[in-house]
Amino acid sequence: MRDFPPRIGGVLCVPDWLLPLLVPVVAALAGGFLVLAFRPRGGGEGVALLADRMEALSDRLDQAVAQQNERLARSLADSADRTQESARRIHERLAVIDAARANIEALGGQVTTLAGILGNKQARGAFGEVQLRDMLADRLPAEGWAWQHPLSNGTRCDALIRLPFPPGPIAIDSKFPLEAWQALRAAPDDAARVQATRRLSADIRRHVDDVATKYIRPGETAEGALIFLPSEALHADLHALHGGLVQEAARRGVYLVSPGTLWAVLGAMRALMRDVRLRAEAQHLRLEVARLAEETGRLDRRVANLKRHFGEAQADMDQIGITAQKILGAAARIEAVEIDTPAPARAAE
């Protein structure tokens, strides 16, 4: 059995909570020993001295108990504060852990949803169309592209970028088959890998032939079309494992683009559209300047006519002024002439 109280290095260790209980017991024992030691044998002085000593001892014991209680209270208060601080930190960490767990659960749901989209052919096609449409709406002006645009042969391309001739409008397809590529990545052995590679090559040729036949229309579209791949990994694998097929598709005017490369292509097309718009605006400004020059010439001719009219009017005003001076001079001369007025005739007598 273990010793109680415990010992450390041969020294007896008394817990803090046991010390206040031992103090009264020790005080009582000390008082009993003192009573036995100073028990009077017949004199009253010994009893009085014993009473004084007992009172002084009781006071010291009360002070020691009060101090011990005060230290114990402070210790308990400090322990309670430390416990509350630890509990607060634990609650904060638990809140962080709960938030991280919620984020992980949400991410797991999103991954599951994405896996379901990629596993369903129709949903995967819709996912590629949504991604393509978002990129077109973000990079090109609204009048620079059309969605599900019908061509003259009766087919509808997923998107048509309206570029001027040359090069002309460019059609984009977003329904690339991914089953063979997924089978290639999940192939368990070499035989399954070779079979999946052949299937992928056949799917690429078939899809490139469809796009080249349906989406490249001389005089209506450009001499090339784009196939949008919604995965950077697929784009990298096709260029790394089937570079010959990619080059063959490019010779037929069909180009495979990933989200990253399509972003750069759309940036170049946006710059081309801006250049075309600036040229059109410059031509419009040139026409307006020509009209303004014509109006300026007409204004100059009218100002010259007006100046001529003003000159003629000024000459007429000068002539009128000369005539007025002559009239005034004649009036002055007439007024200066003395004319004898005849006397009035007398009435007949």
From TrEMBL:
Keywords: Coiled coil, DNA recombination, Membrane, Transmembrane, Transmembrane helix. It comes from the Bacteria. InterPro entries: DNA_recombination_RmuC (IPR003798). The keyword Transmembrane helix applies. The keyword Signal does not apply. The chain crosses the membrane at residues 17-38. Involved in DNA recombination. Belongs to the RmuC family. This is DNA recombination protein RmuC homolog.
